[in-house]
Amino acid sequence: MPTTQTTKINQLLDPEHVRIGLAEPSKTAVIDALVDVLTGHGAISRLDDVRAAIFAREEKMSTGVGKGLGLPHAKTPAASNTVAAFATTDEPVDFGAVDDVPVQILLLLVGPEEHKSQHVKILGRISRLVSREPLRERLLDAETPEAVIKTLREGEAALRS
What we know:
This is PTS system, IIA component. InterPro entries: PTrfase/Anion_transptr, PTS_EIIA_type-2_dom, PTS_SugarTrans_NitroReg. Residues 11-155 form the PTS EIIA type-2 domain. Pfam families: PTS_EIIA_2. The chain is of the alpha/beta class. The chain has a single domain (9-158), classed as Mannitol-specific EII, Chain A, CATH 3.40.930. Helices cover 41% and strands 20% of the residues. The protein has helices spanning 9-12, 27-36, 47-60, 116-130, 133-141, 145-158, and strands at residues 18-22, 64-66, 69-70, 73-75, 83-93, 103-111. Strand 2 (64-66) and strand 3 (69-70) form a beta hairpin. The radius of gyration is 14 Å and the shape is globular. It starts with 8 loop residues before the first helix and ends with a helix.
């Protein structure tokens, strides 16, 4: 995976790390389920450490960034590279978001401390993408992981780096 500023979200995802229609009832359950999506990922050495880092970050401030987007993320030595998991939920989940809009689109991002600038750029990219209502609607309407990745790829192609 490239480690330059041009790393795309769709490059971080493969179908096995995308979930459609999670039916978890709470923020904690949704984040737990999303961390579990990374089970067996080659860049993750200790899933429990990833989970702890994600929840520690969430305690500092909600990662419900607005417009129905949740971005649980953390930096941890339990990740040897930047990795992502993506999900949509069946029902909106209260995330304590800055705009009070419940979350239905989630991107979990985790990586090592030394990938901090890449991490920040990717978080900014997904925020810019999901700020576009037509793209949000396409993500929520996607019926397969492949459709999610295609939607993100097309959305990113329309963004300026």
